[in-house]
Design a protein that fits this description.
The chain has one domain. The chain is built from ten helices and four strands. It is elongated. The termini are far apart.
């Protein structure tokens, strides 16, 4: 691609990246995710009824409610709403129920994921990813000659020379490290917004907080501000729980009901 496009290789690379990212977003729920996990329709009962009701209230498609065997990969307490153009579905990991989720937790967590869908966070992040990739490829093109001199590889040809692959790799690696906190900050914004969406529409601050406490098993709850900025793509558990409790003080929560029928 670099040899063929020459001067505009970075724009072509950004275009190819955009196509693959968007294509992956569309086909992942249909073709990719089922390869790694088994998705089964959520059985009739209080869990499904609660999710369907919340979906209808938030404008999320409510005809595809699934449970998948997320415990096959990890013990992470999670759910998601994924898919576009009629393929959207709500999927809850079986880990939620293995860890004793009650209806308040289910509503709190699923409400958060519905927030991502309704608020268009995935599309926004995809757009930001494409912008960052475009800027990254452009900077790579501009910084390559400088990096070649700094690394003592002046005999290597231009960026299309295969001998310059190590130099190109160094430039891409450095830019990748610098871009990570930028993209993570954008992701944290969407996560905080999804929490707020859940609190507004599900009004389950206790349920959301209980679920967040369970994620502290694999995510440090109170990192330093610098650590959170550089390494975290979610707000810290401590900050998220504090926000939920502030919401609770202003809006009396609904009582969580134990799940009587687990899948």
């Amino acid at each position: 691609l670099i040899r063929r496009a020459r001067r505009w290789w970075w724009a072509w690379a950004a275009g190819v990246t955009a196509v693959f990212v968007i294509l992956g977003l569309i086909v992942s729920p249909i073709l990719i995710e089922p390869i790694f996990n088994t998705y089964t329709p959520a059985p009739n009962g209080p869990v499904r009824d609660a999710v369907v009701k919340l979906a209808e209230e938030t404008g999320t498609p409510s005809d595809k409610i699934y449970i998948f065997n997320g415990s096959k990969q990890s013990d992470r307490y999670t759910a998601n709403v994924s898919g576009l153009f009629g393929s959207a579905r709500v999927a809850m990991s079986d880990v939620m129920f293995q860890k004793g989720a009650d209806l308040a937790e289910v509503r709190g967590v699923v409400g958060h994921e519905m927030g991502h869908y309704v608020r268009g966070h995935i599309l926004w992040l995809v757009g930001m990813m494409i912008v960052i990739a475009t800027v990254g490829f452009w900077l790579t093109d501009r910084l390559y000659p400088l990096a070649r001199r700094w690394l003592g590889a002046s005999k290597v040809g231009d960026i299309s020379d295969p001998a310059g692959l190590p130099v190109l790799s160094v430039v891409l690696a450095v830019l990748g490290v610098l871009a990570t906190p930028v993209f993570s900050s954008m992701t944290r914004i969407t996560e905080a917004d999804a929490d707020h969406f859940s609190l507004v529409h599900a009004n389950e601050p206790d349920g959301l907080s209980k679920a967040l406490i369970k994620t502290a098993e694999y995510r440090a709850p109170s990192p330093s501000a610098i650590e959170e900025f550089i390494f975290y793509d979610h707000p810290s558990v401590g900050n998220r729980i504090r926000k939920a409790m502030e919401w609770k003080a202003a809006h009396p929560p609904e009582a969580g009901t134990p799940v009587s029928e687990t899948p």
